[in-house]
Amino acid sequence: MIKTGVAIASDEELQWVLAEASRCLFCVDAPCIGGCPVHIDIPQFIRLIRWKDFKGAKETIKIANFMGSICGYLCPAGELCQKDCVLSKTGSPISIAALQRFACDRADYGSEIKTAAGTKKRVAVVGGGPAGLSCALELRGFGHEVDLFEKEKFLAGTVAQEIPEFKIPQHILKKEIGELDLNQIRIHLGIEVDRNLLEREISKQYDAIFLGVGLSRSKPTDLNRKNLKNVFDASQFLNSIKNGAINQLKGICITIGGGDTAVDCARMALRLGAQRSILAYRRSQKEMPAAKAEVRQALEEGVEILWQVTPFRLAGQKKVEAIEFARTKLVSSAQSGRKRFKEVAGAKLKLPVNVVVFALGKDRDDGLGHFLGDRTKTIDLKTLQVGKTKYFVGGDFFNGGETVVEAIADGQRAARSIDHYIRSG
Amino acid sequence: MRVSLEVDFAGVRFKNPFMLSSAPPTGSGEMIERAFEEGWGGAIVKTLAYDIRQTQNVQPRIHSVHQDGRIIGFSNIELGSPKPIEVWLKDMGRIKKRYPGHVLFASLLHTEGLVESQWVDTARRCEEAGVDGLELNFSCSHGMAESGGGASIASNVDLIKKVLGWVKGAVRIPVMVKLPAMVENLPYKAMAAKESGADAISAINTLNSLSGVDIYRFIPHPQVDDKSAYSGLSGPAIKPVGLRCVAQIASSADIPISGIGGIVNWEDAVEYMLVGASTVQICSAVMQYGYRIIKDLETGLRHYMEKMGFERVRDFVGLALPHIKKHNELSREYRLLSQVNEERCIGCGLCSAACGDSGYQAIKMSEKRRPLIDEEKCDGCGLCTQICPVLNCLTMKRRI
Fold first, then answer.
1. Is the minimum CB–CB distance between A15 and chain B shorter than 8 Å?
2. Which end of chain B is more exposed for a tag (fewer CB within 10 A), N or C?
3. Which of B126, B48, B32, B125 is nearest to B80 (CA)?
């Protein structure tokens, strides 16, 4: 059964919300705060919900996380804040993400950047996704002049482009972006900053530069040599769904991969009408990097998962018609804790298929990726500064693709480092 | 072991000690019959009105006090029964015929001013109808009390004696006096009632209260056409007050007591019995859950008695009383120290906040989020053991 995944915000749910909020023990130095990458004062906002000051709850959330609503929808809370809830030891943890969604959906709130005395220093933020926006808002608060460059015509990056509607409804995203105080930041939409622009102009005009451009190049597959139709990479697939280019699927859809994006693709395929949606992953369930709750929901909705298979051939005339997998076995790896996989000779599986989606992860794009190049090794993991340069990084571009909340945390951290760098330089 | 829940109370035999108090659950004959079918040992009819023009009810008249969505008390502004005495007399006669093994008391009297003939007349007619006893409502804290009845009678020993004298002179059935909590020198009032011939005392009634205020419209609850009145608070919130009153009465007057106030379950009932009640009366819990709670009240009490080796309720009535002393008689040599069971602790830190901000700054949290108790600083107050959300985690131990 496919669930809409839309949040709790109705009066019917109010009773549940108040009861859930009343379970919170209001721990001293609560461990849940430590589990949240942006350290939202969780017990405080839950207590404000409990006493029906929903606006106060939302303020508490938004002060720490300008995308508090979006993160309420997208955070793998079971692996972050909720993991550390002390109530897990005597029963079930508080449903923190649901309460956060509720507060953000329910209350009206408009942020206003309280700006420190102006420094007349200029910072360029490249990328208008969670990391870039987060960094820009913080920097403005510190009193710096901020220019933000975004290659698309809209903000929010991956959240707007790829994350499916069933996980983050468009109106929630719009509302959250609408609540931001963006007037104090100069935002340049539709400007793609390539290596040339960065090195020749931006680096000369600005005192510091934050690079939070995300990952834009899908990891390639060499299986579609014949250029068969109906074979996509995950970005293409999700983006085409979001912009309406794909609005219906028929037959069998097979997604290759084991991350959150792969799970999104598989769940989306069912929603678009695929008769079967199969997720094929080369390792076992234990090694699968996707959030456990997401995988569970996918299975509940009817997504089928093939564990320990790796594709080696696509067949078809013009369109893809079949896919062949080899079975894999897992072998311990001396270097990393994660098990490696090997193909099992002779163990083959051929499946008819109508749509194939490769969700193998993404890389930095060639331009800014090459700009960073070997300098990646010089990034200070605490300050996110690239060597001793005026460049700072964060978000997926830096960490290779983590959660939205971690990108926001990166943006905040980089902003603090940039402030320190500018003021001490 | 054979356990019996039967109770002899002021000469009346009860099959179990659980009665419905004079309140909404005893609002009609039909209701009381259903309650007896469910197993209630007795019922006290909703206070009779001498003139039902005086018991015209307002709407709404019941409000509740909540905490986190759970009811901890009701507060009501309901008056005596709006049914005429004639109807009740017929109903009471029928109930006693159909349910001779269940105890039925009438409750007197909702009226304005104290008129001897009204009390005598009503008492006699009830006795003729066949009720097992009378309860004199000297305790209603709202409405009636504002017009000279209810709790205003119990505020004056002379009035207690006078009205009780009228009724005792008129009937032979047992007469129980229902006393309120908020009255000056309750033991003295109880003794006065006994001296004037009361066969039993019931306590307590609701506490005069203001249920709450609508903070957006500035109108207290319950709201009757945008106005309100002081109301009678009942339910779990008032149980500690009821226990205190029953204990005080039991310690001062040798008289059967029917305990009332916030009894929800068998443990509450046992507590009332341990401080001197030999029957108990219940209303609010029935208002919330219905007559069917008699099942868990009865089996819980039975199993408690089996476990404790009590054959009869009287075996344990009043057993807590010798343990209640004047404060200045309590030991000052008995010194305690808070201790933590680290295996049970979940690391919430509430004890450190409580001790830090309302105690003696004796509890700090360790790196691993476990309380570290400073034995020098701990003053044995016990607050930490009360606010700890985990069973048997923080306890007090004797200092050696």
1. yes
2. C
3. B48
Answer left, alpha or beta for residue A237, where phi above 0 means left and psi between -120 and 50 means alpha: alpha
CB of A228 within 8 Å of a chain B CB? The answer is no
pLDDT at B147 over 90: no
Compute φ and ψ for B44, nearest 5 degrees.
-115, 120
Residue B65 tokens read as 């006090």
Q: Is B381 a catalytic residue?
A: no
The DSSP secondary-structure symbol of A252 reads: E
Tell me the pTM. Answer: 0.90
Q: How confident is the model at residue A136 (pLDDT cuts 50, 70, 90)?
A: very high
Phi/psi of residue A393, each to 5°?
-130, 165
Q: Residue A227 in 3-state DSSP?
A: coil
- CB count, 10 Å around CB of B326? 6
Residue A124 three-state SS: strand
d(CA B376, CA B395): 17
Domain B7-323 has CATH 3.40.50.970: no
Residue ranges of chain B assigned to CATH 3.20.20.70? 7-323
Chain B contact present for A29, CB below 8 A: yes
- The whole-angstrom separation of Cα A395 and Cα B100 is 81
DSSP code of residue A386: B
ipTM for the predicted complex: 0.89
Q: Are B291 and B35 in contact (CB under 8 A)?
A: yes
Of A22, A25, A27, the CB nearest to B68: A22
Query: Distance of alpha carbon B223 from its chain centroid, rounded?
Result: 26
Ranges in chain B annotated CATH 3.30.70.20:
331-398
Chain A partners within 8 Å of B347 (Cβ): 27, 31, 86, 89
Rounded Cα distance between B303 and A58, Å, is 50
| pLDDT in the model for residue A2 | 53
Q: Bridge partners of B13?
A: B8
How many domains is chain A built from? Answer: 3
pLDDT tens digits for A204-262?
999 999 999 999 888 878 888 889 999 999 999 999 999 899 999 999 999 999 999 99
| Residue A317 domain-assigned (yes or no) | yes
